[in-house]
TrEMBL record:
<dbReference type="GO" id="GO:0005198">
    <property type="term" value="F:structural molecule activity"/>
</dbReference>
<dbReference type="InterPro" id="IPR006187">
    <property type="entry name" value="Claudin"/>
</dbReference>
<feature type="transmembrane region" description="Helical">
    <location>
        <begin position="25"/>
        <end position="46"/>
    </location>
</feature>
<protein>
    <recommendedName>
        <fullName>Claudin-15</fullName>
    </recommendedName>
</protein>
<dbReference type="InterPro" id="IPR004031">
    <property type="entry name" value="PMP22/EMP/MP20/Claudin"/>
</dbReference>
<feature type="transmembrane region" description="Helical">
    <location>
        <begin position="114"/>
        <end position="136"/>
    </location>
</feature>
<keyword id="KW-1133">Transmembrane helix</keyword>
<keyword id="KW-1003">Cell membrane</keyword>
<keyword id="KW-0965">Cell junction</keyword>
<feature type="transmembrane region" description="Helical">
    <location>
        <begin position="67"/>
        <end position="91"/>
    </location>
</feature>
<keyword id="KW-0472">Membrane</keyword>
<keyword id="KW-0796">Tight junction</keyword>
<dbReference type="GO" id="GO:0005923">
    <property type="term" value="C:bicellular tight junction"/>
</dbReference>
<keyword id="KW-0812">Transmembrane</keyword>
<dbReference type="Pfam" id="PF00822">
    <property type="entry name" value="PMP22_Claudin"/>
</dbReference>
<dbReference type="GO" id="GO:0005886">
    <property type="term" value="C:plasma membrane"/>
</dbReference>
<comment type="similarity">
    <text>Belongs to the claudin family.</text>
</comment>
Length: 175
């Protein structure tokens, strides 16, 4: 109880609002949403690390594919925990709303729940696409990027060799 007295000496007491005084499903929904935020953060970090265009991890595409797949798993976990939390909260809100004998405040389903369902669906779809797109290739299947030369490691020489290769293009043909 939270009590206060006025100048006449009368005490007014009311229930002390606490986070632990909330119903269990609200506390569980909050815990699931915090877990979803953590999963999403780890998924984002793993996905950015596992992208082929990132410099982290070098050119080991097998390792990068596995890291990106782990990011997809984290996004799936994020979507599932968000979907469970949002749906559980909405089910309880709906049950309390239609209960004629419920003495507390009756809430309605709002925009936040629809945004939560949309974000959970997008996270599940994105995680599944990321997980399916990661191919576990061998090192023989490594494909260089298009902007890289196929003869990596070989320096072009400016010294003219005695053998000339016939070409259909003259000096002025290159732009």
């Amino acid at each position: 109880m939270s009590c206060a007295s006025d100048s006449t000496g009368l005490y007014n007491c009311r229930d002390f609002p606490s986070l632990f005084a909330l119903p269990g499903y609200i506390q569980a929904s909050r815990a699931l949403m915090i877990a979803a935020i953590v999963f999403g953060t780890f998924g984002l970090a793993a996905t950015l690390t596992g992208m082929k265009c990132s410099k982290i991890g070098g050119e080991n595409y097998i390792l990068k594919g596995r890291i990106a797949a782990i990011g997809g798993v984290f996004f799936l976990l994020q979507g599932l925990s968000t979907m469970i939390a949002i749906s559980w909260y909405a089910a309880n809100i709906t049950q309390e709303f239609f209960d004629q004998f419920y003495p507390g405040t009756k809430y309605e389903i709002g925009e936040g729940l629809y945004i939560g369902w949309s974000s959970a669906t997008l996270a599940i779809c994105g995680g599944s696409c990321l997980l399916c797109a990661c191919k576990f290739k061998t090192t023989d299947d490594k494909i260089p990027y298009r902007y890289q030369q196929s003869s990596r490691g070989h320096a072009l020489s400016t010294v003219q060799t005695s053998q000339t290769v016939p070409s259909n293009y003259g000096r002025n043909a290159y732009v």
